[in-house]
Design goal:
Elements lengths: L12 H15 L15 E2 H9 L7 H10 L5 E3 L5 E4 L19 E7 L3 H7 L1 E2 L6 E3 L3 H9 L4 E7 H6 L5 E2 L5 E3 L1 E2 L4 E5 L1
Antiparallel strand pairs: 1-3, 2-3, 4-7, 5-10, 6-9, 7-11, 8-9
Helix pairs in contact: 1-3
Enzyme class: transferase
Keywords: NAD, Transferase
Organism: Brachyspira murdochii
């Protein structure tokens, strides 16, 4: 049974560290703890907990429940009976999250560091080591993403035109819009 810690919706500093570790494992390096993911990115919850513990981390099912429920980026999902867990997006490893193609809103935003702007103006927005380019529904969310990389810049994207030109979009469970590439011709403006 989930204990009373679930009633407090703010993660502790230790839980934030666990969240980042789980993110690293499920999105980038499952082999670091000897974990095998299914082709669609799922891991057994109890195996994940035991393998994380073997790396000296303090984790149990209650902590993992809190990390999934209260992670501010909603990075993780459980299956219906909470026996499997996966990251919602942001992978650098090859997994098939079975996203369905969706029509995006007219405008989307991409948050990045101001240091990347010249390159983006020339080459567009690339997915780099990830499986997709991540786009946000609002300027505020994009700004928070950009702040993680330094002084933020927000790029306004003409998603409607991209879609009309045949570019495929997907929406992750945590409401991040995904595509393979954003050509610089679809950039409507840059907010610094």
């Amino acid at each position: 049974m989930i204990n009373d810690r679930l009633n407090n919706d703010k993660l502790t500093k230790e839980e934030v560290k666990i969240s980042k570790f789980v993110s690293m494992v499920l999105r980038h390096r499952p082999e670091y703890i000897g974990l095998k993911l299914s082709k669609d990115g799922w891991a057994n919850v109890y195996e994940l907990i035991e393998k994380i513990k073997s790396k000296g981390k303090n984790i149990d099912k209650d902590i993992l429940d809190r990390v999934v429920l209260y992670n501010d980026k909603k990075r993780f999902s459980f299956n219906e009976n909470h026996t499997l867990i996966r990251a919602n997006q942001g992978h650098s490893i090859d997994v098939d999250l079975e996203f369905e193609e969706k029509e995006p809103p007219d405008i989307l935003f991409h948050g990045t560091s101001i240091n990347n702007i010249d390159s983006i103006k020339k080459e567009g927005i690339k997915k780099m080591k990830r499986l997709h380019v991540h786009l946000s529904l609002t300027e505020d969310i994009a700004k928070k993403v950009g702040e993680r990389h330094g002084k933020p810049a927000i790029i306004k994207i003409n998603a409607k035109q991209m879609y009309e030109d045949g570019i495929k979009f997907y929406l992750s469970e945590n409401k991040v819009w995904l595509c393979d590439y954003v050509d610089s011709k679809y950039i409507l403006g840059i907010i610094e």
